[in-house]
Design goal:
By secondary structure, the protein is of the alpha+beta class. The chain has six helices and six strands. A two-stranded antiparallel sheet has the order 1-4. Strands 2-3 form a two-stranded antiparallel ribbon. A two-stranded antiparallel ribbon has the order 5-6.
Amino acid sequence: MRGKNAWVRRIVYQGLAIRFARNNRNINVMERIALVVADGNSMLKKVRFSKLTGAARVLDEKVIDRGRMLAGLKGYVKNLPFDSVPEVKAISAYRDLRQVEVSVKMTKSDLRAILIFHREMDSIVAHLTVVYTALAIGWHLHELTGLPLNWLITDLKAVRSAKARLNGQVVTFAAQIPECLEEVLSCLRGCY
């Protein structure tokens, strides 16, 4: 951006060997697909490493070379002053942000949280409070047990006790706890 609303940004690059291997593997797969398309053996229209020259598709060597040159690198954009936040801290902040994104995705799928459109501010705040409380509880259970939240929800849903009134008398039916859940529940009981 230019003008009075312009902001200075820095890009911090991080290179990882595991990312390099994954990127190279993906580049090789995409290059093979582009070769098949360029040979005319496939009718795919949108291929990353091919370009249209005249009526024929050909391999785009320039894009492949650029992809190989950048393999393993990931850039993080900062708009903070150079000395205020070190590069390691900026990358760590992005990783924390990624954890939040994973948590929200987990909430929407595992907790079946759906978008609800509210008009009143009180309703909006109440809805967000319920969703994020469920997220916090789910994340806490995951941290305590080490088990995925969707597994916990599915298996713990079946553990229920009940009280019923039969012939004027209140009868309590204890929960039937499978052996595989006994360890999880004892871990949770020990924490509280």
